[in-house]
Structures are given as structure tokens and as C-alpha cells.
Amino acid sequence: MRLLFEVLCFSSLFLSAAQAYTFWDDFYVFFGGVNVHFPGNVTGNTVELGLTNKTGSGFRSKYPYLYGQLSMKVKLVGGNSAGTVTSFYVRSTYKNWCELDFEFLGNVSGQPYILQTNVFTLGQGHREQRIFLWFDPTADFHEYGILWNQKLVLFLVDNRVVRVFHNAKDLGVPYLEYQPMYIYTSIWNGDSWATRGGRVKTDWNQQPFVASYTGFNVSNACAVKNVVGPRFINTYNCYRKLYRSPYGQGPNLQLSQSQIADLRWIQKGFLVYDYCTDVNRFPGKVYPECMLVSGIVEEIRVGSHQRCMAAKFWDDFYVTYGNENVKYPGSDPGYIVQLGLTNRSGSGFRSKLPFLYGELSMKVKLVEGNSAGTVTSFYMASIFKNWCELDFEFLGNVSGQPYILQTNVFSEGVGNREQRIYLWFDPTADYHTYSILWNQALIMFKVDNRVIRVFHKATDLGIPYLDYQPMYIYSSIWNGESWATRGGRDKTDWTKQPFVASYTEFNVSSACSLKDGYVTEDLHACYKMLYQSSYGQPPNLALSQSQIDHLKLIQKDFLIYDYCRDTKRTKNVPPPECSRNWPSITLSSAITAASTESHGFSVLDLSPKLSRDRLTV
């Protein structure tokens, strides 16, 4: 089949207008011909590329191009596409090549596709940016385009700018300016890295995986037709055309206000990775071209979410998995989110922006009835290799028995700092507020504004603090029956599915948000806000007397496990920070049974259930 297409390579002159040419007028299959199909008719106006466990497939243009605007309409693989990579890109054939990539990273059913773009100049890449798409790219065709001139390269999705790469030769960065590039498309197996860093593999039971291409358009681009080996002797005409064509003249030499608005919109709501801000991957390295972009999209990076969130869920969050189990009840959907768990999948969501210091809260109503084996969570986590994390985890229990709230703290990848308490109310009957106050001196975990735990800064004792890693907000429900309820002795009763937890009233009115990335000026702005805002000044730098009283009560009546007191686990040597994490009080025993004395709490009558045996977890 490949020979057939290559025999046809002599055909027509290159597109000079947006006309309905057939596939083989301008392309040929360069691998996986057995997986290439032309549905509907023989004209080849639509091409399907398939991937099986034997081979992927791809096609390439017959001519390379030097400057202009090029686009292709693509419909991506539907269903469970995890591990697959579908691409549309342009690339030269030089040893030190240039390349501009659209790569679509497949995901499991119901989760969003990630679009990864990349730029190579003279063989140097590592300029990945990743965004979530704001539509379902498997339901219909969408247009992906590149505008390339002497000043900049624009990546466009449905004519909306999602990325810009400026000519930065004056800063020592090579530009894509003399190498004509061919157009390629392909689908291939990238399950070693494509989906969740390679943790989710390709399910070959779903093969073939099929992506469709149509609507190729180079009506505003320059084809280089005279090719002798690797040398292109007809580039002069393309330079002349560049300076005479719309794509090489203003306003296409700089971003318009609407394009700047597009970039800000992408950066605020859909950007999930940017090489420019990956301080973990490139420690101490600053890419000069990044400064040109940051100057354009400088916006409300700090404080864009510093308000009580009356916005709807999708304004500030996106579903990370289990979309089929996520519901939005009510007459005006979007203010309440329900996460469900079935024996097939849990579900979860994440904030679009990370935060550095402040007070953050969420109201949650937990799974009612027999929730044994389920884990409902509200937590914060960074995306560094040695990450930081602050957890609220609600461990389900059998009907009529109290929920256990487990909190945990990770600093630079080290956790194992669990504390568990019984809640003094029924968390399934109504919403309750769970919050974190995080500043330069301490972290408080609060329930309905009562402090239930404190983690003090203890860098002087050799304990890393959570003081430079912005963290995203996550919520999820999942099956933890191997450990969650009575050490795994009570299993999930799937006849009760779906298990549903509800979330509402996310509030970061006193917190510092960053764009999705950690550039220096953003971090400095959050540090500045820290020392100017109430959460970073007295009295929030130390526990008040009423907060100390709350902690004493929690410790006396509701605490059922504390890593600091687990002598078997710590070998009688508590971690250094433990000396600061509880007010000094004397207990009659290491952990006492929860009492029914209210102490200002509205306490359930749990005395028949809270026996010494029940406290063995």
C-alpha cells in the first residue's frame, strides 16, 4: 500500500487556494498503511489513522513549507484512549532540525484529553506546554493550526490562540527561519509516558484506536517544491512571499488584544504544565524566550481567585477522573458537586490554579448509611517530585458508627504523620466546613472553624516546612477497603452503590493563587501578600487561648490515633516536630475514650459505641 501512495507522489501542484483536493494529491502514507482507511468515498477527503498492538500509522506531505498558516481538522480517539498519542506536526529533515508539535495524549474514558505542544529549534526541544481542551475532541472535528512568520509562531485551536513562541534571536535563542518543514500526522503507542506519566497503560482489548483527519488547508502558506537532497533551492520565493502576504505583515507580527485575552484565558483555566515554570525539572535555569511570553500574559496571577467563590464549579475546577460519577444537582447546576463511587470507578476534581499560603475551605456532606471501605477526601498537594500535601480523609464506617477523620502532613515527600479523630456530629446529615490555614509559622486544620490539629514550622529541628511549593486543591471519593475501616476488616458493600459525597462553597477569599506555574515574580507576590494579609500576621502566627482549649478537648475526648504517640512505629523516639504539635496537658492514658460531655460541642451520644475495643484501629 505504501508503494501505491508513493507512485502517486507525482500528482498535483500544491494547494494555492482552499480547495477540495483528495488526500493523495498532497500526502502519502509513510508507515502503517494497513491501518489507514478512507471512509465514505474514494476521494480521500477524510483519512482515518489506526493503532493496533502491531503498528500505528501516519502520513506526510509531499512538499515542505516555509512560513505561512497551516491547519488540519482532527477528531480524536473516542472511549478509553489511554496510552495512545495522536499527532499533527511540522518538521524539517536537517540533522539539527526544527519542529512544531500538536500531540494529543489519550486518557481513560470520561477524563479530559491533554494537548501537548512543543517547539524544537536546531534540534533543541524540551519546550513542552500542556493544556486541557475545553470541549470533547472525540465528538466532532476541531481545527488545529499553526501560524508561522518572521516574528512569531502561534498555535491555534478552533482559531483561538493557545500558545505563542516569539522570535528571540536577540536573546540567543535560535528561531525557525530557514528550514522548510513537512507536515506529518500519526497515531502511535506512547503508554510508557503519555497517560499519567505512564502509570495507565494502553488497553489493547479496545483496538483498533482510530483518529480521523480532514480539512487540510495551506491556502496561506508557501510550498518549497524544488528539493535536491537536504538542500532546498527554492526558498527565496518563500521569503519574498513572506513579506508580501498577510501572514507576514501586521497585525500578524504581534498578538492582538483578543489573542492576548485568549492566552490569558488558557493560562488561567486550562494550562496544566509549562516548561517555563518547571523549577524541579530545570533548577536554576531560565529560558530567555519565556520572558517574552510572561510579559504578555502578566495578569491577575495573584488574587484572581481571592474572593468567596460564588462562581460555578467549572469556573475553578475540572474533573480529574470518573466523570460518569460526577453530578451537579439543583435547579441551577454548578454550585453543588456530587462525587460518586461505584465498583467500577471513583471520581474526583482539582482546582485549576495552585495556591501558596492563606486560608482555604470547602463544605462537605459525607456518604450516609453504610459507608465502610470508602474514603472521601479534601486535600492540597503540590506536583513536585518531593511534594507537599495536607489531607482531610474521611474514613467510612458501618451504619450507626461514627466517621473517623484522618489528617496527614507531607513535607518534601515525607508523610506518615497521621492523626485520627472521631467527629462530634453526624457529617452525613448536613454540610460542615473543613478548612486549612497555612502561613509562615504554622498550619491549622479546622472543622467548623474549630482547630483540630496544628503543625508548627520546625525547620530549626531539621523538619522541612511547606514554604515554597504552591499546592492544588483536590477532592475525591475512592475505594479504600483494604485499610480504611477497622484496618480493612470491614469491606465495601457494593449492594449500596453508588456512594455519594457532596461538596459546595469552596472559599479562598484569603489565599494567594498563582497561574499554573511557579515563576519567580508569582512566588514573590505571594510572599508579599503573606506578610501583608491577616492570615500571615498576628494573631494567626500562634494559637490563641481558645484554640488551645479546642485542641485540648480534641486530644482528651476525640483523638483515637496520633503518630507522635505510636511507640511501636516510632520506636519510642517521637519525631522532633511532635513536641510542638499539642498543647502541654497531662492525660490519664495515652488515648482516652471519647466522652459525651459537650465542652461546647454538639456531641452525639456515642458512649455505647466508643468502647476501648472500638478505639483499636
From TrEMBL:
The keyword Signal applies. It is an enzyme of class 2 (transferase). Residues 8-213, 280-503 form the GH16 domain. GO terms for biological process: glucan metabolic process. GO terms for cellular component: apoplast. InterPro entries: Beta-glucanase-like, Beta-glucanase/XTH, ConA-like_dom_sf, GH16_AS, XET_C. PANTHER family: XYLOGLUCAN ENDOTRANSGLUCOSYLASE/HYDROLASE PROTEIN 8-RELATED. This is xyloglucan:xyloglucosyl transferase. It comes from Marchantia polymorpha subsp. ruderalis.
